[in-house]
Design brief:
globular, alpha+beta
Amino acid sequence: MQKREYQFYVYILASRSRDLYIGMTNNLRVRVFQHREMKPGAYTAQYNIHRLVYFERFQYVRNAIAREKELKNWTRDKKIALIEKINPTWEDFAADW
């Protein structure tokens, strides 16, 4: 039996006014589309957060969960520095999906 390869992602979404949302998923493309549906009552819909500005890929789910928790405990300034190190213009990486 062939062993299946999994990929997990920790991602940061931002609004134009730079409100942030951190999440974890095994399908980044689908998850970004779900956020963009702007379902009423959702945090990302309330603050218009749907631009993918940062993500990391992981092979193991436990590593992804640990990283998500780590990032969520960071200060806002530290999160912004992480984003700007990789994406200084806050480009939406999923703009053409």
